[in-house]
Amino acid sequence: MNKALEPHRLHFGYRTRNEVLRFVEQAGDESLLGEGAVAKAAARDLQLLQKVLPKLSGSRDQLQRPLRQLLGIAMGADAEVMGQIGERYEELYAALLAPGSQPGTASGLAALEPAYPRTARKVARMLLELKTVSYSSYFE
Predict the structure, then answer these.
(1) Residues 1, 90: Cα–Cα separation, whole Å
(2) What whole-number distance in Å separates Cα of residue 124 and Cα of residue 87?
(3) Which pLDDT belongs to residue 108?
(4) What is the pLDDT of residues 77-110, one digit of tens each?
(5) What is the rounded CA–CA span in Å between residue 131 and residue 115?
(6) Among the residues of 48-97, which ranges form H helices?
(7) pLDDT of residue 97
(8) Burial of 136 (0-12, 13-18, 19+ CB in 10 A)
(9) What is the C-alpha to C-alpha distance for residues 124 and 130, in angstroms, rounded to an integer?
(10) pTM of the prediction?
């Protein structure tokens, strides 16, 4: 994640990295987020949402590329899937907002299962905001 943000000068520092790693490591200790790998994935998702995304705000020129890279990471998607998503952020956001409630669509976006669903949903929302008003912030 940090490597995706670094070329855009949006990366985070060692304290944030250490806090995220500590939280993820301890995620399964109390079984609040599940067990084992499930707990660690849920913890990473929460930390991306709580520690990384709130630091991102700016214009379309500043954020579109880094947010698309973050979306690819959150979706666990390769270049082909990201090409399929294109700039259809509204459709993607709707599919992520109500997973499982929509039957598979011709576009296939409803069938995507993100690696980090909370983060993917928020990044899709931020990209949709960038597309419509040319500015986005974690805080709407």
Answers:
(1) 24
(2) 10
(3) 65
(4) 888 889 889 999 999 999 998 765 444 444 567 6
(5) 24
(6) 60-75, 79-85, 89-97
(7) 87
(8) buried
(9) 10
(10) 0.87
